[in-house]
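Morning, I've got a small favour to ask if you have a moment. The fold is given in discrete form, as structure tokens running alongside the sequence. I'd be grateful if you could look everything over and explain what you see. No rush at all, and the record is pasted right below.
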Amino acid sequence: MTGEELSIVIIFVLGFAVLLYFIYIRPAVKKRANRAKVAARAATERGARSAQYGSPGEQAATVPHGSTGATTLALHPAERDRLVGLGAQLRPNNDWRALGSVAEVTYGLNLAAMSWVGDPSTFQARSEHWDLALTIPFAGRHGVPWDDYPGYNPEEHAVILVDWWGVHDRSSLLDQLFWLFGGGHRREFDEERIAVLTNDAVALDEWEATLRRQAPISESAAETLWRVQRFRANDRNCMNVDFLAWDFFRFAMLTRIGVGLGYLTTEEGLDFLRLIGEPMRTTYSSWADAGEHFRIGRWMWYSVGGEKERATDVQDVARQQQLIASDSPWSFVPWNMALEHDRGLFAKALVEQELIVRDESRGEEEFLNEAAELLRNPALTWRELRMEIEADVS
């Protein structure tokens, strides 16, 4: 073999090795790292679930917080459920501050603080402001002015999509948006509630027993057990929650970040938000009402008791109090104002991405119009669905 031929062979072998690395080895290493993160998170959450409480009459020790010398009395879960149940935070009040220390409450309020680019004193709401108001529950937490569209810094906020959503391009973003629009977590939660409504106590006890055996080794089983027990007890009035807000406010958040990262055009982003506007107004009576259902939806998704539940309650209720305050952007955007209709850009994007398979027997424009119209007619609200189920059971 000549020197030139040997060089070609070496280059070929090295090139093949590099190819193997990027196709097989690197993804495998990433998967192992992700599994390790998931396992660590699961272990932490299982530890939180194992926290035990005394009876409602037992008094927990007071704990000092910071240099202020402030103390807080740990509330029994039943009392905490009463303070933060569905509807309890529809108007400003201070009872919820008993959930945490002065430091925790202050942190929660600061975390949910809203900021503007424009001047609130001269603000005049337009249709696009209603669309952007759907992103407000996360805009404060992410430190983004609600009226600066898209407003997200690509370098700073791309990690949110990658770490929590596995989104790294337009394709993966549309996949997650389609999941949220088509069912999201509400589908799983509603299936569990339907099971609670349609099965007798014996069957439900057996289901719980099975989940309890699986919980020590299965994060999914532990979370399902927690939710089933909550649904059976109707804690926080969770059997009457419509979880659409939990999925659709996150849909709005992902859409806005996607525009900021260049995965969606500005035109697409606003049109995607317009699509979810009417289903939100059909389901809820006001911004505050939607915020309440979102808050309980996040609690249900978290599916963790103990100290972690208490800590996240402080943050979630603080956010709701900020959202319904008189100086909140929601107070400047009328819930029932006239809105522009979407132009079917979400349906078009889904068809282009082959998430909706096109019927080749029909023209492209005809099929896109039908797909867009189908997306504009969502499923029954939870209230309507529950009424049908209870009528059938009776």
Remarks:
- The beta strands are 63-65, 70-72.
- Confidence is low (pLDDT under 50) at residues 18-24, 27-32, 34-73.
- Residues 43 and 224 are 16 Å apart (CA to CA).
